[in-house]
Specification:
Two copies of one chain form a homodimer.
Chain A lengths: L12 H14 L12 H8 L3 H13 L3 E4 L3 E4 L4 H25 L5 H14 L2
Antiparallel strand pairs in A: 1-2
Helix pairs in contact in A: 1-3, 2-3
Chain A binds a DNA duplex through helix 2 and helix 3.
DNA sequence: CCACTGTTATATATAGTATATAACACTATA
DNA sequence: TATAGTGTTATATACTATATATAACAGTGG
């Protein structure tokens, strides 16, 4: 499993692990039902304490991303696509709203925002 | 001075104070050269330890927002408008880029983003 | 001198983060 | 059934960030 951890970051290690896994689920690099590395193996792999991995997995489970089964392992939970879509829309709205608010505050024409969208829209497709 | 502090927030108090003052400077509610409340008076006012206020002011000073003069007080530093504009543009670009990336990842047409801009653009002017 | 500024230092408390270790419980399999 | 792998729970320890309280020091201005 791909997992980049910065030990010096101010972001807690368990948060980095969470973000990493959520990101992989969102990008379908991890699929529904797929098994995650066991707590102990991931612990050895990235040299992080078992308890820290456990904390990350616990929170991911309580947030509905994964499911742990004692004795078997930890698996990617079925995605509630509608819920995900709603969360994503909310996140997008937040970004746009903040951008617009900043434009107003500093008198930047909103046309520049639409231009930025076009630029990133092109530059982002691979 | 207007200052809302949430004691239960996960955001540190000194960070909340910083954000609050930066926001007021950005919105020209605090003007260049204007004097800020003294550390002790603000401490009494919002019932926060002197040292916490000091920490907030220290960081604001090292970030160039304010200037402290021993025995006199703490003042809003002259704004480097060009630098501010650049920072704002960078922040706006970040928001737009994230919104576009999410749209791509979840196959939401970017046209919806431009629509959102229009909506917030209208809704935001008072 | 006095009353207000900011500055520095010390001690203390609490919470979050991270580690190490151990024991327990469940599953699958040789 | 023994064993080796899972997750779970508990305990102790350490470090850091945050926040508080208190005190003393230093500069400004009336």
């Amino acid at each position: 499993m791909r997992m980049m951890i910065s030990n010096s970051s101010s972001v807690p290690i368990y948060e980095q692990i969470k973000e990493n896994i959520i990101h992989q689920i969102m990008n379908h690099e991890l699929l529904e039902g797929e098994i995650l590395p066991s707590i102990r193996s991931l612990s050895k792999d990235i040299k992080i304490s078992v308890m820290t991995i456990k904390k990350a997995y616990d929170e991911l489970e309580s947030e509905g991303y994964i499911t742990s089964i004692q004795g078997k392992g930890t698996f990617v939970a079925p995605q509630n696509t509608q819920l995900v879509q709603e969360q994503v829309r909310r996140e997008i709205e937040n970004h746009i709203e903040k951008a617009v608010t900043l434009s107003h505050r500093f008198q930047i024409p909103v046309e520049e925002l639409t231009q930025l969208i076009e630029i990133f829209d092109r530059g982002d497709e691979e």
